Amino acid sequence: MKMPDNYDEAREWAMARIGQRVFRCANGCSCGVCKGIEDKGLVIMDTIHATYITDCAFEMGFRYADSKEEL
Predict the structure, then answer these.
(1) Which helix (H) or strand (E) holds 42?
(2) What pTM was computed for the model?
(3) Under DSSP, is residue 24 helix (H, G, I), strand (E, B) or coil?
(4) Which residue from 46, 2, 48 is spatially nearest to 23, judged by alpha carbons?
(5) Distance in angstroms (rounded) separating the CA atoms of residues 59 and 33
(6) Is the dihedral of CA 66, 59, 50, 5 positive or negative?
(7) Segment (H or E) for 21
(8) pLDDT in tens, 14-58
(9) How are strands ordered across the β-sheet holding 21-24?
(10) What are the sequence ranges of the domains in the chain?
(11) Buried b vs exposed e over 26-65: b needs ≥16 C-beta within 10 Å?
(12) Residue 38: which residues within 8 A CB-CB, separation 6 or more?
């Protein structure tokens, strides 16, 4: 499932995935951190991390998803 476009729903989506790996599309940055997230995804560590990735997604205009295929 892809992160919803509504902020509150997206935050709930991220909270439900604490401890799980999620993926995001390429954002145009070629640094090692961004490439690693694009290639391997990232594991949402806790509630603060879930809120952070939600905030970043909405500020930067991308969404996370449960798999690369859903992006």
Answers:
(1) strand 42-43
(2) 0.91
(3) strand
(4) 2
(5) 18
(6) negative
(7) strand 21-24
(8) 999 999 999 998 888 899 998 999 999 999 999 999 999 999 999
(9) 42-43, 21-24, 64-65
(10) 7-70
(11) eeeeeeeeeeebbeebbebeeeeebeebbeebbeeeebbb
(12) 23, 24, 25, 26, 27
